[in-house]
Write a structure and sequence with these properties.
Blueprint: H1 2-36, H2 43-71, H3 82-113, H4 115-122, H5 129-164, H6 169-222, H7 226-254, H8 257-261, H9 264-274, E1 279-283, H10 291-312, E2 317-324, E3 327-334, H11 345-356, E4 360-364, E5 371-378
Length: 380
């Protein structure tokens, strides 16, 4: 309910701003028509006049794209032709006027609906309370209709912007094919990097422990001194315990069983418990995300926390996981020294994992900190 109210307010503000820009666009369209019509039959003059007109249309279309993305959550691919931008500006002012009418209707309905709360201050005596109640109900019904109109105008705004400013269907297909090819190659590279990391961990850690364990057992087996043999067996026992701990650590980094058994929240809390610095986890998901999304979110948090502890010397790390409008937002912030390299092997591998799910990944780490590692994943 709160998210719905927030969306209505955001869309309402966006339509009000769209009404203001519609007045500018209408004036621009009239001036452009008045300038272009006299030189329509004069090619040289038409080209000289058309260039600034197209530049103005491109600027207005850019402002509209920013408004749609900020307030209406409509993100349009920025590539568009100048002529199509001019056509968009020439048509969009009508939608801006319609949005203004809808918002005016909502204001009138809200005024009638809440009149019962402040009418007794304005009127000396209310002779017909029934009419006042009916008027309030009618006002709230008008608000309900206006809200539906807001969503309808937002949908029309998106269709118009995609038609004129967005890429053509063939261009969109080519772009999508290129994205899928790149993400597939990124997934293959990420898998290969993960295999090399696992091999390196096994070779440098577990394998060395097992070699040392074998040598201790061999020396104990050849020893004729019972006291020395017991001492070597004790060392072998300690070495086997350390090897088992490292093997568990490698297995945990490959894939945590807690993620399957208890879910993402428990897995993140385990990461916080295993860290050597305090890690606060804010988990605001109402339900468990899909397995693929949960896995990527877990590795983003795990790798970001590991890198922070290893390189940034932080005193505290904050992890935030929340969902909004079919998107999941994961953020890891530390108060360390900053200067994290987004192109490093660990963070670059996370970026490829996120991109494989059509998500976005960013790293903000100025020298001196703080460092923020954030990912946005689709969860609908």
């Amino acid at each position: 309910m709160r998210d719905m109210a927030r969306r209505v307010v955001r869309c309402g503000v966006g339509l009000i701003m769209g009404t203001a820009t519609a007045a500018v666009e209408l004036l621009f369209a009239l001036l452009a028509g008045a300038v272009l019509l006299p030189v329509a039959a004069w090619p040289a003059g038409r080209g000289a006049v058309l260039r600034p007109v197209l530049a103005g249309a491109r600027t207005l279309a850019g402002l509209e794209r920013a408004r749609l993305a900020m307030w209406l959550d409509l993100r349009i691919t920025p590539a568009h032709e100048d002529v199509r931008a001019l056509r968009y500006v020439a048509c969009r002012w009508a939608l801006g006027v319609l949005g203004g009418v809808v918002m005016l209707t909502a204001a009138i309905g809200l005024g009638y609906g809440t009149f019962g709360l402040y009418g007794w201050l304005l009127l000396d005596g209310i002779r017909d309370p029934g009419s006042l109640v009916l008027g309030s109900l009618g006002g709230f019904f008008l608000v309900f209709l206006a809200v539906q109109g807001i969503f309808g105008v937002v949908g029309l705004e998106g269709q118009l912007a995609r038609h004129f400013l967005g890429p053509r269907h063939q261009e969109e297909l080519e772009r999508r094919i290129a994205e899928l090819s790149a993400s597939r190659a990124a997934v293959v590279d990420a898998v290969n990097d993960e295999r090399r990391r696992i091999e390196r961990d096994l070779h440098d850690g577990v394998q060395q422990r097992l070699v040392a364990l074998g040598m201790l057992l061999g020396r104990a087996r050849r020893s004729q001194d019972a006291e020395r043999r017991d001492r070597l067996m004790g060392q072998a026992h300690d070495e086997s315990r350390r090897a088992l701990d490292e093997l568990r650590e490698v297995a945990w980094r490959i894939y945590p069983t807690t993620l399957d058994e208890a879910g993402l929240r428990a897995a993140l809390e385990t990461v916080a418990e295993r860290a050597s610095v305090p890690v606060g986890v804010e988990y605001e998901l109402a339900e468990e995300p899909e397995q693929a999304v949960a896995t990527v979110a877990y590795f983003v948090v795990c790798e970001a926390v590991t890198n922070a502890v290893k390189h940034a010397a932080p005193t505290r790390i904050s992890v935030s996981v929340r969902a909004e409008e079919q998107r999941m937002y994961v953020s890891v912030q530390d108060d360390g020294c900053g200067g994290a390299n987004a192109a490093g092997s660990g963070l670059f591998g996370l970026a490829r994992r996120v991109a494989a799910l059509d998500g976005t990944f960013r790293v903000v780490s100025p020298p001196g900190g703080p460092t923020v590692v954030a990912a946005e994943l689709p969860c609908g």
